[in-house]
Amino acid sequence: MLAAYMHELSMASNIIDIAIHEAKKRNATSVIEVNLVVGKYSMLGLEQLCYCYDLLVKDTLLKNSKLNMEHEDGKIHCDKCKYKGPIPLKEELEYHIIFPTLVCPKCGNPAEIISGRDCYIKSLRVKK
Amino acid sequence: MTKIVEHKEDEVFDIELEESILKKNEDFAKKNSELFKTHNIKTIDIMGSIGSGKTSLIEAMVKRLKEKYQIAVLNGDLTTTIDSDRVAKHGVDVIQINTGKECHLDANLISKALEDMELDQLDLIIIENVGNLICPGEFRLGAEQRLVVISVTEGPYMVLKHPFIFMEANVVVINKLDLAEAMNVEFEKLKADVMRINPKAEVIGTSCRNDKGIIYVIGALNLS
Fold this sequence. Notes:
The complex is a heterodimer. By secondary structure, chain A is an alpha+beta fold.
């Protein structure tokens, strides 16, 4: 069963390791909440992540803790015209698909992603 | 930097972290990248779908480049040495990295493989990632360039279905063009899809089986 969630399993395990490390550093006895920010353009499946998290927190300081997730939108930056803003989306009506593009919406030149790829722990709520 | 922002009397308090869960991988990737630079080694991370021709492309590239460069190939796969045996026949150093169940290579595995290599004697490392168009995009390995391989036999929608990995690539190879007509798939249409997602990418059509298009891939990677 776990093999189906390979990528999310290792990410959930990372989250728990970081939380335990930080909680112990401050002599906390348990972690009540983990507040996670997930970039819209990271490859993480959130349901799978929650599933793996619930499996892994058993018998740790994070037992019965809540994993809260907040989305972060993707942003691009164009070096040429200095545009900074949301990743433009294009629609392909024929296939009913909406896909992101790195084409700058202002000048048409290639742009770089500056946010929305990462996944990070914003904060933890712990009990002493 | 971590700081405590709140410490209530009831002894429940918040710790502000901003700690990336991908950071561990990014740190290893940075370390690998510095190591490659110190030893003046060019590196390419080859990603792509299962059966698209990643190993065939590497074989074709190695055949043409082994006189010019001292090459090592790192082959990532869940299990077996089938791919590395194919590449090793061409007389270059090959290291097999078996991920077990993981769907991608990560920078830590690469860094472990590098420990056993004579980096001073190499000028080109080609890394074959695990066949998958989803996860490898997320885990940078520290390679200087990233190349994605797909083939016409996977149908006409491969690019639009997996936009994220194409955003990560600087070269995209569309392989098995000798079968394009039979598959009723147009190279130009796939190329246009890549350009709509990532206008910076260079898109090359190949038929690795027939050794067609390989010089253009080598050119796009600035290896000629």
